[in-house]
Design a protein that fits this description.
Number of strands: 13
Number of helices: 11
Helix content: 25-40%
Structural class: alpha+beta
Order of helices and strands: HEHEHEEHEHHHHEEEEEEHEEHH
Oligomer: single chain
Strand order of the largest sheet: 6-13-8-11
Radius of gyration: 21 Å
């Protein structure tokens, strides 16, 4: 990494963001942890790296006695971004409960504007504060998204504030704002259209008309692992968590703009995980199995959109695994 930074230093290709991925590391001792902290300082001071992003690969942060996650982050301990303030507990009913968490946008702003109402801050301010930053993410995907937003903000901060930009989706997720049903429906349709880029918008709208609105509260269970797959859902507002039962903390957060359940709907397989509402509330638009079977029978031209979404999700996951095998010569667990 040092050789690359020296080679690029002072050129047009000089980086200002470095992502260091520790997601395949199972444990770090204290001396190594302190060395990593020094690495952060070196990157800032010697190579003018504006943003260092460290990937833990776990919602528990770095597994060592030294408070490495806190030392690597410019944020306070309670605001380490998505997943860091999330604590999983198994309740007596075998459902999963999660403590409230702070969004990455609000948490990064809080380090510079502690007395400001975070819900009113523009997303473009996220990367525009003075001084170098470092950030901790729990997955490589979230780190890449974070870095991409920083690149966009560096070019033109207003690009992050378009009608369906991150700030709007974050408001839906965090519950800071409310919208009329007509506005929500329009945003839901646009989110669904984004999953089928380049396709006929009239046909997408016709299919979306068959989706029914559903509202969930925090800790509500959308479905249990092993239950019958009777619908697919587009998450329009809020955050969900997908948990594999009888696994060692295997979970995945589901954010606005994604669909869930399409695999089971297409192949009639039982649910592969338990899905629960993580935010204070959530809004989903659901396509039932009855409606799906009618579409397949009467309007196969509309059914292909659901197949397209499933294929895109599958190809994305396969490519992610393939890249990891190529880069690390090992298969992620």
């Amino acid at each position: 990494m040092k050789d690359v930074l020296i080679e690029k230093h002072g050129t047009a290709e000089e980086p200002f963001i470095v992502i260091i991925d520790f997601s395949l590391i199972l444990g770090i001792d204290s001396s190594a942890a302190q060395t990593i902290t020094k690495l952060k300082s070196t990157l800032h001071k010697s190579f003018n790296i504006n943003l260092c992003v460290f990937v833990t690969g776990s919602t528990n942060g770095f597994p060592c006695e030294y408070a490495l996650s806190q030392e690597l982050s410019t944020l306070p301990e309670t605001s380490l971004g998505v997943g860091k303030a999330m604590i999983q507990r198994l309740s007596s009913s075998n459902f999963y409960e999660f403590d409230e968490e702070v969004s990455e946008e609000a948490s990064l702003l809080s380090s510079n504007r502690s007395t400001t109402d975070m819900s009113k801050c523009g997303y473009s301010e996220l990367f525009c504060a003075s001084g170098p930053k470092s950030h901790v993410c729990n997955s490589l995907d979230s780190a890449l998204i974070f870095a991409e937003d920083a690149l966009v903000a560096r070019q033109d901060p207003q690009l992050l504030n378009d009608e369906l930009g991150p700030i709007l989706l974050d408001r839906f997720s965090s519950g800071n704002e409310r919208y009329l049903l007509s506005e929500e429906n329009e945003i839901a349709l646009q989110l669904f259209a984004r999953l089928c880029p380049g396709e006929n918008k009239d046909e997408i709208s016709e299919l979306f008309c068959l989706f029914k609105r559903e509202v969930y509260c925090k800790n509500d269970i959308l479905w249990l692992q092993g239950s019958s797959s009777d619908s697919m859902k587009l998450i329009v507002r809020g955050r969900l968590i997908s948990v594999l039962e009888n696994e060692a903390g295997t979970l995945e957060e589901i954010k606005s703009g994604n669909t869930i359940g399409e695999y089971g709907l297409l192949l009639q397989h039982n649910r592969m995980s338990t899905v629960q509402c993580l935010s204070e509330d959530a809004v989903a638009y659901s396509l039932s199995r009855t409606s799906w079977e009618e579409i397949v029978r009467d309007k196969p031209n509309l059914a292909r959109f659901v197949y397209l979404i499933a294929v895109n999700y599958l190809s994305s996951r396969v490519q992610h695994v393939s890249n990891r095998i190529f880069e690390t010569r090992c298969l992620p667990i």
